Task: structure prediction
Amino acid sequence: MDLPTDAPPVTEILGALYELILLRREAGESSSYVHRLFQRGHDVICKKVGEEASEVIIASKNEAADELVYEMADLWFHSLVLLGRHNIHPHEVLRELQRRFGQPGGGKSTPDEAPAVSGPSVTETP
Result:
């Protein structure tokens, strides 16, 4: 895989992308995808995160590893845009993951304790 020559190291990519997102939010040109997302508003950003999450699920169900990586990158990117909408640095999410590290269920409910989710499953059609 060819990386851009100015790409930050993998350990710094989330923070670097977040800073770029904030820059484009504030001073992006009208041709900037990120700037347009912010201009279109919170609901559009949330919808985009939902769409990307659905595409991740489909890629996983299809057992398509390359597609899963690609769609997960889209989901993470749009999640960073959403964090930018709230001025929450991704390090805050990483610290939360760090806090949960080693805890049963990642610090969340176990599957038996998790609340039931209603609605159709991924394989069901409405």
